[in-house]
User: Fold 3-methyl-2-oxobutanoate hydroxymethyltransferase from Papillibacter cinnamivorans DSM 12816.
Amino acid sequence: MKNTALTFRQAKEKGEKLTMLTCYDYSTAKLMDESGVNSLLVGDSLGMVMMGYENTLAVTMEDMIHHTKCVSRGAKNALVIGDMPFLSYHTSVYDAVVNAGRLIKEGGAQAVKLEGGADMAETVAAIVRAQIPVCGHIGLTPQSINAFGGFKVQGKTVEAAQKLLDDAKRLEDAGCFAVVLECIPELPARQITESLSIPTVGIGAGKYCDGQVLVYQDMLGLYSDVTPKFVRKFADCGTVMREAFRRYIEAVNEGSFPSAEHTFRFEGTVSARVS
Ligand SMILES: Nc1nc(=O)c2c([nH]1)NC[C@@H]1CN(c3ccc(C(=O)N[C@@H](CCC(=O)O)C(=O)O)cc3)CN21
Ligand SMILES: CC(C)C(=O)C(=O)O
Ligand SMILES: [Mg+2]
Assistant:
């Protein structure tokens, strides 16, 4: 059955965990959907893992729409969430609603995600008024890299943790159906999770969150430019892929590929050569 913003809220009421993975293309979306993940996040992390940028700031609405289209076509049951890229919602509430709408209308997503807390509450409320479900995102918000001075753990002091809890509550009040907690210690993540009626989805936020999300290239061992402490490699697909590419090159070079089974049959006689 199709996961929706509503089933996210209900999962928390039932005490069921939620799973989310980032996804950027059709074939991977199908594989993930078939494995039963609740949600596919077309993250602006695609700037790093798909495009090779050092951070997420250069990602455009066109990049996000392109990849969201690809993922939507492959997701039968998973909720597709389109990530709003840097500067697509900071310039005005109007811009935010228009750009959120594009991820839905053009990208085929069922929800959007944006970074920020109390400062974005008004923006979130306006998008929700347009009937677009919004997922919040607080803690390490990568689009704030220049303000933070790097990808750094947030909410380490009592004051910072209190601010995160206030932000989370403002997002819930503004109408978010879920909130991502990125790179914060276990205790504040647990307190936020217990204080909200909407689910928290953690990435580097410990085990007490209602759900978890990982960048799929990280969990498959396909990307190593940044290696956050919170990543578990569930498979070493990088090694599998490198080895397959090497075997292909070797087979072509030695002439064992393509063999007869991969070659089309000619129907004329061997002597009737084309000239
Ligand atoms: N491939 C990938 N995986 C991600 O999880 C991810 C992205 N890209 N791009 C967008 C953001 C950036 N993220 C990051 C990137 C680096 C760290 C990192 O290196 N953190 C340090 C903590 C530093 C500190 O102690 O403050 C670590 O050791 O985990 C964390 C999150 C998470 N997101
Ligand atoms: C890491 C997740 C939460 C994200 O925002 C992204 O992939 O862009
Ligand atoms: Mg993101």
About this structure: The two ends are 59 Å apart (CA to CA). The domain at 5-236 is CATH 3.20.20.60 (TIM Barrel).
